[in-house]
Structures are given as C-alpha cells and as structure tokens.
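Problem 12. The chain below contains 171 residues. Write out its predicted structure in token notation.
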Amino acid sequence: MAERGRSRSRRGGGKGVRSVPRRPRRTSRERRVARLRRLGAGRVADAAKALGLSTTRRAALVAIVVCALAFTIAVPLRTYLSQRADVAAQEREVAELEAEVDRLEKRRAELRDPAQVEAEARRRLRYVMPGETPYIVQFPDSRARQGSAADDRPAEPEPWYEMLWNSVTER
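Solution.
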C-alpha cells in the first residue's frame, strides 16, 4: 500500500505529500488558557457524573454543607452575643454604682459640718439639747384622720376554706 502514491511516514520527501501550512506557535500562556477552557467548563459536570450525582443530589449536598457551616457558626455567635449583653449589663451596673458613690461622698462631705449633724439629729431623731424643752404638736385633724383610716379599711375577705365550709354547712 505504501507504493500507491503516499508514503506512510509523516515526514516530507515522499511522493504525493501535500504541504500543509503550519499554525503559528502558541505562547505558553495561550496554551494554558486553552487548556483551562477545555477543562473548566466540563470539569464540574464530569466530576459530578463520575461521582454519580444528579442535580438534585448536588443541591442536597450543598444544602447539607451550608447547614453544617451554619451550625458550626451558631454556637460561637450565640456565645458572643450573650457575652456582649452581659458586658453591657455590667457596664450599666458600674455606672449606677459610680453615681451612688458620688452621691454618698457628697453626703459624707455634708455631714462633716457639725451644724448639719445637729440639724439631722433634731429633725430625724428628735433630739434636743440639754436644758431645752421638747414640744410635739399634734393637730386634731391628723389624729382624726389616723383613727378614721383604721375604720375605713375594707374588711379582709374570708379564707377560701372558711367560705367552702360555710357553703357546705349552710342550708
């Protein structure tokens, strides 16, 4: 068969060999881009086919991965948020305590004055200085109000067990 007009070798020099114009040589970058184009589009689909995954199974697998990531992140996120709330509560409490400390320091400064201490003792404890005669004035309407307030109080309701007993024994 080699004698019919074509030589089987690919090199030139034989009878009936056509000259084919050569393509210009590609750069290494062009070769890489072309290879990636050939592999890129079909690679994911080929991998899925090789693993036997349909579109539905791939979607389910992605959903499982997303859920696993969500559960992995959920616990630290919950801890972070609860600790942040605790820190905010502690900061509020510190601010309240600092305000109370300031108020008590002012009160202590007021009570360093002996005249202020004497006025407090007279007003709150009803102390008197030696030689003074204490008088307590009670107005008649205030005593009447105190007595009438005791009379105007509503009667306490009977306990439930007495109400039950009375309902059973009464005819």
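Discussion. Helices lie at 28-51, 55-111, 114-124, 140-151, 160-169. Students who got a different answer should revisit the alignment rule from Section 12.3.
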